Every structure is written in structure tokens, then in C-alpha cells.
Amino acid sequence: MNNLQQLIQMGQQLQSRMQELQEDLKNRTYEATAGGGMVTATVDGKGDLKGIRIDPGVVDPDDVEMFEDLVVAAVSEAQRKARSEYEEEMKKMAGGMPMPPGMPGLF
Fold it and tell me: Most Cβ neighbours (<10 Å): which of 33, 61, 85, 97?
């Protein structure tokens, strides 16, 4: 019975630490650029898009497809950075154990 109580207590502590981590990550921001800095995307620690900066020189009405690709690339990279940071923090919290895909989280 004592082991079960310890396990429950450890689970509660881990859950509390995970909630703190999620709050902390929500307040972080990650940036990524594409096209040599022509497009910059900013996401929060959850990977939600918070902003886009676009160099006016990249806007070419005759090549909208390239512009769209740059936006997608910048957003994707910023989200990848946020996801990577989240996964690293979760691994630290779990003592280096790999976290299963879809672990309660942000992604």
C-alpha cells in the first residue's frame, strides 16, 4: 500500500510540474526566418502563430507562390523549434525517458 501511495504522489508531482512547464512554454516565443530573412514567423511555446514580418521586397504579384512558400517555411520552422524545446523539457522532466507521441501536451 505504501508503494501505491508513493506512486500516486509521484504522479501528482509530475502532473504539477507538467502544468508549470506548459504555462512557462506558453509564455516563450520562437522565431524562424525564410528567404534569407525576408519572412519571419513568431510562434509561442505551444506552436501557435503570433506574428509574421514580411520584407516588402519579397512581395511580387507575379510570383505569389514563392511568397506563400516562404511564409509556410518560416511558420513551420518556428513551430518545429517550439516543439523541439517542449520535447526536450519533457525529457528532462521524465528523467530522460522518451515521451510517447501525443503525450499530454501542446502538440
Answer: 33
